Amino acid sequence: MTTQIAHAFQHFDTEYTADCVEFYPISGDLRKRFVCATYYLTPNDTTSETLSEKRRIGQLIVLDVGGNSSDGFGFHEVERRDTTGVFDIKWSHQAVRQGGILAQAGADGTVTLYHAQNESTGEGPWLSQIASHQTEENDVFYLSVDWADRLTPQAEPALVSSRNDGHLELFHVTNSEGLVSQNTWQAHDFEAWIAAFNYWNPTVLYSGGDDTKLKGWDTRQGMTRPTFISKQHTMGVCSIQSSPHVEHLLATGSYDEQVMLWDNRAMRTPLCETSVGGGVWRLKWHPHSPQRLLAAAMHSGAHVLDIGNHGSLADMTSFQGADIVTSTSFTEHQSMAYGADWCYGFNGQPETQSLIASCSFYDHALYLWQSSPTL
Q1: Structural domains counted in the chain
Q2: Domain that holds residue 331
Q3: Which residues constitute the signal peptide according to the record (predicted)?
Q4: In a domain, 375, yes or no
Q5: What is d(CA 89, CA 101) in angstroms, rounded to the nearest whole number?
Q6: Residue 141 falls within a domain, yes or no?
């Protein structure tokens, strides 16, 4: 299979360094909307080089996609919000208070929640801050966030975050108290780059760290020891996502440039793996196609991976030893591609489900492009 090289419909300068992209997943009309988050380390005194005299700042930029396959697609800015430097953002996939909730992992030691209405009235900001949690430790900040309610609605949804001190922190979102920290534990020896839930069993979660270890945790058993430790990756593990389509399927990525697929019931060896030519900072399963996986691969750009020979993956046995091929690559980023996400599709146009937004860091660039057709 020949890899298609995608070209951008549009380029956008985010001003600050860009590291996160998340499409709105809930309302059909607003699935054309996405948020790009940025980070910038700036000195208070431009002559100073000490970290204590610098501030981590950032923005949330809300953008809407428009257009069609005939004339081409594009996007425009809707609103922009100043915040701390942002390391990760994730949408809850269940509607709360007639809208969605965006979680933000902040460089100032905060996890922050924003509410977004399920419609765009044009009056006032679309994103409104509703809760925030500040860590009590100095020089500790949050690196990733993930929601437990992707497949299972929860009255008080759980949220997990990973931290630069190797800890994980488990939260619950309540109507009465907002964002409540439930548990914090040492998970890794160095930075815990990523934490993610098993969407099919939200009592189970996974973490990856700069110690090269991939670990599993079960909230029913306490957090004194992991349920497994994998050392199959040879460098820091920085991306994990449970498949929302196939139970027990897990994808992981690492600085070692490998993407690995796993059966979470047998974590000794991966089902299959491939190299994408760059450190795998984020992985996103396609919203509708179980065999497609999007990788933001730092220095090598962003890539769409197709799994299996025939595009029909009925159960876990189909993934054992499956071929993983790169069907589409986007290489116009001039810096590290940290953020990427699929559009969920809008306005009854099926081709919009292959739209992808991706962003890169030092060139503060945001692009919109399209993958090859689904197998």
Answers
A1: 1
A2: 4-370
A3: none
A4: no
A5: 10
A6: yes
Name the β-bridge partners of 207.
195, 215
- Using DSSP's 3-state secondary structure scheme, residue 178 falls into strand
Out of 89-98, 338-347, 356-365, which region has the weakest mean confidence (pLDDT)? 89-98
Query: Is 345 within the bounds of a domain?
Result: yes
**Closest among 94, 248, 229 to 159, alpha carbons compared:** 94
Query: How does pLDDT run across 255-279, given as a tens digit for each residue?
Result: 999 999 999 999 999 999 999 999 9
| Residue 222: per-residue pLDDT | 87
- List C-alpha distances in Å: 251 to 6, 209, 293: 23, 15, 9
Instruction: Give the CA radius of gyration of the chain.
Output: 19
Place of tokens 């007639």: 98
**Contact between residue 3 and residue 324 where contact means Cβ atoms under 8 Å apart:** no
Length of the chain: 375
Phi then psi for residue 354, to 5 deg, are -105, 5
**CATH code, 313:** 2.130.10.10
pTM higher than 0.85, yes or no? yes
How many Å apart are CA 305 and CA 239, to the nearest integer?
A: 15
